Structures are given as C-alpha cells and as structure tokens.
Amino acid sequence: MKLKKIFLKIITVLFLSINIVYATEPPETWYFYKVSKNTALDYESDSERERLIDKYSETKLILIDGDLTLDKICTMPHETTTDIETPLSYWKSPELTDKYKKIFIEEKIPLENQIEVTRNNYENENYPCFKEEFTDLIKTGNFMVFMTKPGYLLIFSENLEKDLPQSNDKSFSKELTQLPIIDTPLNDYDLYELDKEDSLKEIPVHYKKYLDILSYEGEDILAAKLLSISSNINPYIISYVMDSGERDSYLYLFSDDDKVLDKLLIFSYITTTRGGSGGYGLPVGYRYFNIDKNYSIERRQRFEDETIEIQHYQVNQNGKFKEIPVTSECYNQFPPKDKNKHSSKSLLLSNFQANNYLRSYLEDKNDFYDMTMTLNIGENIFCLNYQQSFPITLNKINAKKFFNNENLYQQQVENFKKVGIDISNELQYITFQNIENTRLTNFLLNGNQAIYMDNKLFFVGENYFAFFWQPKDEELFYE
Fold it and tell me: Is the pLDDT of residue 311 over 90?
C-alpha cells in the first residue's frame, strides 16, 4: 500500500512537471529596429516619426504563453486573436497593397505571401496596446510590424539582439572587411565629395549598439576604412545619417580583433547662428576637420556667439585620442574660456577673430579649401589657419618683368581685365617670408609671391586664377 502511494506521488509530480514545462515555453523576443522613413497614407511628418522613434527606441516585444507584451506599456492576446492572411486580403485594395509593399521594400523587410495579422479592436478592453496609437500588428518573417495611424511602420526584429556583435563577432568583422579604403590627408570637403559619389558603404543599422550609437540616432550608417595607423590600430570614418540628411561623422579606432578603442566626433552641425534657422550666420557645430597623413587631427567648432574653438588631437600607442595644446602666432589676446564648455588645451577665437578671414572667388573651391587666410596690410602680417603668421612685404614692379613669361603675362592681363583691373604696365605684389613649408606655396609665383591689387589678393598661374578680399567691418560679425 505504501509503495502504491509513493508510486502515485511520483506520477503526480512528473505530470505536474510536464504541464509546467509546456505551460512556460521560452519567450520569443523582438527588439525595436526602426520606424519607416515614409508612410503609405500620403501623410508625412518628421515630428511624428521622431516621436515614435523616441518613444519606442528602447522597447521590446515579448511573446510568452500566448500573450504579447509591449514592454511595460501593455499586453494583448496574440495566439487566439491572430489570423493568417495574404497582403491583398488584409489591405483589400491593390493600390493600397502596392503602397505598403513599396514601404516594406524600402525598409528591406520581406513581406511574405502569408502574414500573421492581429487586428485592432477598439471596443475590446483586452486590447490596450491598440488604444495606444497602433492599428494592426503584422508578423512577416522574423519581424513584427505595427501599423500606425499615420501610416508609418513601427518595426521590431526577432534576430536583432542575437545579431549584435560582440568584440570577436565574425559578422561585424566581415562588414569591416567589405568597406572601401580611402587615403589621408582627409578633410570635411573630401568627405562631402566621397559621399556625393556614393563612395562610402552602408553598415546595417543593427550594429548601432556595438558602435555606441543611440538607438534613435541615425537612419543610415555609412563607413570607410582609412590606412592603418599601426599593426593594432585601424581607423575608420563612420557617419550616422539622419532622416533630414544631416549627419554626425566620427573617426573610430578599432583594434585588430575589431573592438572599438576610441571615437572622436569630427563633423556635426546643429542649427544656424544669428537667430536660429533662417539666420544670416554659419551653422553651429563641428564644421571643419582635417586629418593629415600622420593622423594629426584638427577640428573646429563654431558656437552661437560666433566664437570658434580649435582643437588638435593625436593617436597614442594605446589607440586613444590624446588632445594636445593649440597655439597661435596670429593674436595677442583671446576671449576668456568657460571651463565647462571649452577645453583648457584648445584655441578659442573671439567672434571678430573667427570672422576676420579673407572671402574668396574660386573656380575650384577644393584648391584652397583647407586654408583660412587673414591679411593685415597695416602690420605687414599674413595669417594662415588662425595659427601661423608670416611677415610680408609690399612692392611694385613692371608686369612683364614680374611674370618673366610672355604667354603667362598675356593670359593674366586678360584675366585681370575680367575683374576690372589693368596690370598691363605696373602691378603691386606681396612677398611672403618663411612660407615654404605650407601648401600655399603651390599657388605662389616664384615660390613666395602673390599679386595684391584693388585691396584684393590674387593667386594666379597657368591653370588657376583665384582672388580673395578683406570683408567690410559689418561682415565680420553681427551684434
């Protein structure tokens, strides 16, 4: 009798254990992936789209025991309320079906011939999720997609979390090996040209977490590899492109096993100065950077008060960006620094200093793009990039003697006529001292001379004609 009772107890325990196992299947999880760039309902609202991203960027969908939980927001029955349909039977009209198919294609989400549809039911109190802002929920492939009232797709991915690379993840390493390789020197104008030519390669957005990108930041990730700094430090340019087209660009440093060692923001802008959007000023933010062949880095940040902060960095042997002090031979006094806003090692220029550069007429803007020039004729000083100063002398000479080449002389006489200046007899020129080790010498006659006429500085040669002028006082800065 005792053995029979013991046997019954064992059977009961086993039966309960089996029931528990079947009643508590492992949960299925989908992670926020993105919100579609466009809608299928002819409703476009960047603010609405951004609101959806901000609200749900850290959200997960968890399916367990037949109930689907949208994090802590709401729970709804799933298995008992879901139907299998075709896209056409769900959207009813071929036109609307085609519109949604187009959105799915744009987002690279497969829209299968048979989809699981959990329909909205406004009258049912058991559907609190739909009372949020959703219409229906579609499951297609490994994706859960909420239909929203404005027509945006709120997309969750089942594979996103497991696809996120760890430091030795082969999938991320494979992405890096497929990136194009670009050379240094590199500046923001070069990056703009590379982007215009579609020379950067897209990295899947599910690597945001690995790259330490906020989930709501950036619609696309574009990247390219630079030449290696050392055997274990590999630099990359990675840009996060916003829906508006604006972008934040970083210089990343990776180890040999593709761990992120460090990153440095080198290009980003926020708004415009002098009254915000539509103002007369330049954009605020990191608008200029230069990376030379030795990986010395300069970046400049413009602030709303039109001051400019210049910072220099080098890469140390541990693969970290080290800020180094910036000095200037061009000015005697500088504005005071707010220690909470500015680096102690940077060069901070006042709004007058920052705006007192020569304005230009250029046929090829790339020739002089990385050279900001300031000319003080009264003190016989020429300044390059706010940091290097060079003594100058001003002289006059017969034009033919200056060019010492009949063809070049005739060519430049005609060029100057186009801007209303006659140099056929005598011209005035500037001689620069100690300027040999700068890129400007590529545009100087005789290695150190430029023409100065009508308060304009001219750089001329067989294949170029460029001139710069000193801005008027009212152009330097605005109160």
Answer: yes
Give the closest residue to 35 by CA, choosing from 17, 19, 51.
51
- Report field, pTM of the whole predicted structure over 0.85: no
**What per-residue confidence (pLDDT) applies to 393?**
96
| Spatial distance between the Cα atoms of 336 and 331, rounded to a whole number of angstroms | 14
Residue 301: exposure state from Cβ atoms within 10 A (0-12, 13-18, ≥19): buried
Angle of CA points 152, 153, 154, to nearest 5°: 115
Determine the average pLDDT of the residues in 264-284: 65
Higher local confidence (pLDDT), 218 or 308: 308
Among the listed residues 438, 354, 432, 443, the one whose alpha carbon sits nearest the alpha carbon of residue 390: 432
Least confident of 13-27, 125-139, 142-156: 13-27
Q: What are the tokens at 413?
A: 């006489």
Cα(380)–Cα(390) distance, integer angstroms:
9
Query: For residue 126, is pLDDT > 80?
Result: no
